[in-house]
Amino acid sequence: MRVSKLFTKTSKSAPADEVAKNAQLLIRAGYVHKEMAGVYSYLPLGLRVLNNIAQIVREEMDAIGGQELLMPALQVKERYEATGRWDDAVVDNWFKTKLANGAELGLGFSHEENLVPIIKQLATSYKDLPIAPYQIQTKFRNELRSKSGLMRGREFIMKDMYSFAITQAQHDEFYALVQAAYKRVYERLGLGERTVMALASGGSFSKYSHEFQTFSEAGEDLLFKTTDGVWHNREIAPSQISKPNESEALAEYKDVEGEGVVGVQALLEHLQITIEKSTKTLIYTTDAGEAIMAAVRSDYDVNELKLCEAVGCKTVSLASAETVREKTGAEIGYAGIVNVPEGVRIFLDDSLKGLCNFETGANKTHYHAVNVNFGRDIKAPERFYDFKTAREGDLDPASGEPMEVRKAIEVGNIFSLGTKFSQPFDLRVPDEHGEVITLIMGCYGIGVSRAMGTIAELMSDDKGLVWHDNIAPYRVYLARLGSDEVVVRAADELYASLQEAGVSVLYDDRDARPGDKFADADLLGLPHRVVVSAKTVEQGVFEYKKRTEQESAMVETEKLKDLLTAQK
Fold it and tell me: Residue 308 above 60 pLDDT?
């Protein structure tokens, strides 16, 4: 491709409202065009990068038996009603639309409900399994915040694969194949050394799912590494407070009025106590309709996923003001773990273990209890739980050692779905004994455009992008300096020769200053730069430099071809 024919241009600045480094660089280099927050057009160079990433993903999915297809973005309401996912209260990031006849449709955010009816029609025997269709397609999600460039889009490119197995063992075997394939994908993208597989919530499908997380200060996730070497997403990370609560002589229990005192900090000042002596109690309603109390030290937050595991329920939601009054006898803000009515189950986080002379709501409107102690004012609990949200400095409960904490970008995830989607559609197949079995499913996603944004975020310097050979839009930036006939002829011949050798080349044939061309070469980030000038022609060599190196070298034609045709 000749730069003189490329309709895109580089720029010294990005839109003022674009704060993400990855998007700023990609916009300046002419790879993408910002349409709105979370929505980008992929220009010719950007599309080549996107396609290169997709091809790596495609090759690795095909290698483990994946079969590519393409499903529609428009989704049928009735199918999602069958699985309970049409309701916005269940899936809160839908884009929905209507046909001219008024029928409602969804815009694709996930495709289990599209694929299961297809498999039901086509899979008729255990001999057809396992099956693993996948697609690389535009997805739509109505993100409330979209400020991370390509790493959090409202419209984005994703590879989503779905597996179907007749036994748990068959599912587990394929799941392991996907784990290995994902590791190969990130190695080939140049992210392998920075990417780990972390445990995350399995939702209602399984205890855990697995996320592939790339370490980056621009990441929105926080990972905790336990001493057994396992990384955990913050949402499920175990945690223990960094030092035990200190004991002291018991002080006199009393109720203190605090009408109009709003917020933790205001309460601490009103009571003249530290946050480590304060607790917060939240009233939740479980999916079974039971109201429970959950108490944690006030410098921590309640982690609802971990709380569900402690309680033994699928979901919890904050109770209504009416329920709070009914269960505590007080308005919201004054719930606590003293004077609790009979029949209300109380769950205590282990951040409260050993705490003495602490504060809690008095279960009386406008009042808080201070100098509360277990065994005197509250029955000593039989068990403490871990349902606080982990934070930096916390210890691994299993070893008592500090956990390593890293920020990261989620670049892929894999889930075991069980029969969550196959059961509503009665997706069953006879096994080898003739018994009809409901199929077990898995879901495996890779954000293709998110990977592009992640790479741009991490593989860059103060001059611009630094693409890996495997995904660069072109492998070589060929800069012609000067318009003398002999220089033009030498550059044109090299351009043709490299293309014949299978090397992709972006040929800067513009009549521009050398400094401008070199600045563009650095900004565009192609892995290799070759310069043809009157000086190089005279010496019978070419000036060659890798994007990652500071110094260039003069090399002869055959050496240059060896460098540029070497295995990527």
Answer: yes
